[in-house]
Design a protein that fits this description.
Blueprint lengths: L1 H17 L13 H31 L3 H26 L9 H12 L7 H19 L26 E5 L7 E5 L11 H11 L3 H13 L2 H22 L4 H6 L7 H31 L9 E2 L15 H4 L11 H6 L4 H13 L8 H6 L14 E4 L6 E4 L6 H19 L15 H14 L1 H6 L10 H15 L3 H18 L4 H13 L1 E2 L15 H4 L5 H21 L14 H11 L7 H8 L10 H6 L1 H10 L12 H5 L7 H20 L1
Parallel strand pairs: 3-6
Antiparallel strand pairs: 1-2, 4-5
């Protein structure tokens, strides 16, 4: 009887924790008061550590020197030790005994997000692997199309320097190489992803050139990181299992607080897939008109023809697919220049957008510390918002140029600053979005208002006096769809692939990558691919250990948030015409979304935001936003035999390993052997 009772207790413990989606490694220390004291100390120490690391990173990216890089690496090493020590302390407590739900949630956040369960040598190894993969990626350079690399060790033939010509990237669209005077020691092979390769993929319409840069960049990344990535998968899984998860994918999904997360995300994707297929079918027909037989009229699209290295954003081929080419796309850059805009004025305009809604103004530290224009020294110019973890210092780094695109980016980054300001009173662990998708979703929701024509008219940047408003609207919605709708299948499939690798191992990684690309995106490689190519290694987020499903959810959620802001503002009409500028009611709702930070589950915030109508991320608002365009696409596609794509054996043969006849007969012989053995028995 005692044995049965003990077995029952053990079974109950197992079913409560090991079978639960919320399971993580439980400690043995049941002293709740001691756990709460640890969290108070952690909050103070983690804030200080975060400030030191963030400041060292800021100094490096705004002034790239070897000294600043060395100091940054020193701070990161100290931070890594602090993370491991904090994890060990947090993991010693039994969080289920902490009665305070916020305290319990903080303990879980410390334990869930770390790989500190690994032994010291393996923890250092996985960090080293990630660093090495990022360095390989960032150092990838290719030669210009049609040019051979120059080897300075080989004597140059005698030639007249006046007749020698060298090619450089040109700044004008469709003209990618311009003749310049030769240098004494030309360095041909120095084209990086940004800006040179991306510019060619965006603007070139020469198929052989597109194929060359698509192939060359992958040769410099995937094969070099493949073995490191395979070892990374092993270590990431080991860390996850030691923490109490099934695998590293399970650990990545934990912050979403959803026991059926994978099913929920799949359902969301299925609801937007019909819109994507309508867009895909229309774009494919236009590409058939441009490239002829290179694109099959009912098949998938070759990946190098969509204006982007990963076929994730199609906005660069707008010139090929514009609904009404005689009506120009909306671009207020010329008007901004005419009015004498400067980077500072653009940020002041963005700050005014949020304060007009009753939100907080940017503090003096922001204006004093931010980098708003390109400095005269070496610096990384990717736009980003920074929280220095001291509730005072917030900054933006952006090498701003007076363009419409940078005006949108300015509002986007200022939305992140507003988020920081709103949840600044939360503990350090809760100074984040409700789930990993929220920060981007809120920032993008705000910029949806800035994008649209009514807002640009209200701020005096756009006046349409000559063009048909319907044509202008269709062009605008097509441009947005090429950026937002075309992105959804890619953002969805990246982590579907990664989770499958964590679950099923590293065999046939490249085949599975292209299977998912074909299934969800309708995209195939332009040339045959093998496992040695490891094409996922050409995507930075994969080799840098950054989850990607958050971008899919953020794109869906931004429209859901935007719709609620529009309802609060009293907007009546099409969703894509809504402008929440100067709406205090919309500002109050946005503040309610941001203030809790990560202290509440995302489901609670969504329920509050929608006034109880739902607690889940829903794509209904996105579909509603693009409804006018979808109706137009249906008319354009009415004569198409297929909405979507068919794949045949030739498409699959580009990436799937083919079984040889020998393997086939070998398997048949084994099968016959087992049948005979069964008959003998």
């Amino acid at each position: 009887m005692d044995v049965q009772k003990g077995a029952f207790i053990l079974f109950a413990f197992y079913t409560r924790f090991a079978c639960s989606q919320d399971y993580y490694r439980m400690g043995t220390n049941t002293n709740a008061a001691e756990a709460l004291q640890f969290l108070r100390e952690y909050d103070r120490e983690a804030s200080g550590m975060c400030y030191r690391v963030t400041m060292s990173q800021w100094k490096f990216v705004t002034n790239i020197t070897e000294y600043n890089r060395h100091k940054m690496l020193e701070e990161l090493a100290i931070s890594s030790k602090f993370e491991r020590l904090s994890w060990r302390k947090a993991a010693a407590y039994d969080a289920s005994r902490v009665s305070d739900p916020l305290g319990r949630r903080q303990l879980m956040k410390i334990i869930q997000s770390s790989r500190a369960a690994l032994p010291d040598d393996k923890f250092i190894e996985i960090q080293t692997l990630i660093t090495e993969m990022k360095e390989i990626y960032n150092s990838a350079k290719i030669c210009p199309f049609g040019q051979k690399p120059y080897d300075p060790h080989i004597p140059r033939p005698t030639e007249n320097p006046e007749n020698h010509q060298q090619y450089h990237l040109a700044s004008e669209p469709y003209q990618h190489y311009e003749v310049q005077e030769a240098q004494e020691f030309p360095n041909y092979c120095d084209m990086q992803l940004d800006p040179e390769i991306s510019r060619i993929l965006a603007h070139s319409r020469i198929e052989s050139e597109l194929l060359y840069v698509w192939k060359s960049f992958r040769e410099k990344t995937g094969p070099k990181v493949r073995n490191r990535f395979m070892r990374y998968v092993q270590l990431a899984n080991q860390a996850a299992v030691s923490t109490g998860y099934k695998d590293a994918g399970d650990q990545m999904r934990a912050p979403y607080d959803d026991a059926s997360f994978r099913t929920s995300v799949e359902e969301v994707y299925n609801q937007v897939a019909p819109l994507y297929k309508q867009l895909f079918t229309y774009v494919r027909r236009r590409l058939v008109q441009r490239y002829g037989g290179s694109v099959r009229s009912d098949g998938p699209i070759p990946a190098h023809l969509l204006g982007n290295m990963w076929a994730q954003n199609w906005k660069s081929i707008m010139d090929l697919v514009m609904p009404f080419p005689q009506t120009p796309n909306v671009d207020v850059t010329a008007e901004m220049l005419r009015q004498g805009f400067t980077p500072l004025r653009m940020f002041q305009m963005a700050d005014d957008f949020y304060t007009s809604m009753g939100l907080k103004p940017a503090p003096p530290e922001f204006w004093r510390g931010s980098l708003l224009a390109r400095p005269p020294r070496s610096a990384q110019c990717t736009a980003s918002a920074w929280d220095f973890c001291n509730r005072i210092d917030y900054r933006i780094k952006q090498c701003t140029e007076v363009t419409m695109q940078d005006l949108i980016s300015t509002h986007h980054e200022m939305a992140h600053i507003q988020y920081y300001l709103q949840y600044s009173d939360q503990p350090q662990l809760f100074r984040d979005g409700a789930n990993p998708a929220f920060h981007e979703a809120v920032a993008n929701a705000a910029t949806l208002s800035v994008y649209n024509l009514p807002h640009l008219q209200r701020v005096g940047l756009y006046q349409n006096k000559t063009h048909d408003p319907y044509e202008v609207t269709m062009n605008f919605l097509m441009s947005m769809a090429l950026e937002k709708v075309a992105y959804l299948p890619f953002a969805f499939m990246v982590d579907q692939w990664r989770w499958s690798v964590f679950e099923d191992g590293v065999d046939n990684m490249n085949t599975r990558w292209w299977q998912m690309k074909l299934r969800y995106q309708g995209v195939t490689p332009p040339i045959p691919r093998s496992e040695a190519d490891f094409d996922p290694g050409s995507k930075y987020h994969i080799i840098s250990d950054q989850e990607y499903i958050k971008y899919f959810l953020a794109t869906i959620l931004e429209f859901q948030i935007f719709e609620q802001l529009c309802l609060a503002s009293g907007h009546i009409g099409h969703l894509h015409e809504c402008d929440v500028y100067r709406s205090r009611d919309a500002g109050r709702l946005l503040s309610e979304i941001m203030q809790p930070g990560a202290s509440k589950p995302a489901s609670e915030i969504i329920r509050s935001m929608t006034r109880g109508r739902t607690n889940r991320i829903s794509p209904e608002a996105l579909v509603k936003y693009f409804r006018p365009l979808e109706l137009w696409l249906r008319v354009q596609n009415r004569d198409e035999r297929l909405i979507g794509w068919n794949s045949n054996h030739l498409d699959v043969a580009l990436f799937a390993p083919q079984k040889s006849a020998g393997n086939y007969y070998g398997m048949s012989n084994v099968f016959v052997f087992f049948i005979c053995l069964w008959l003998v028995k």
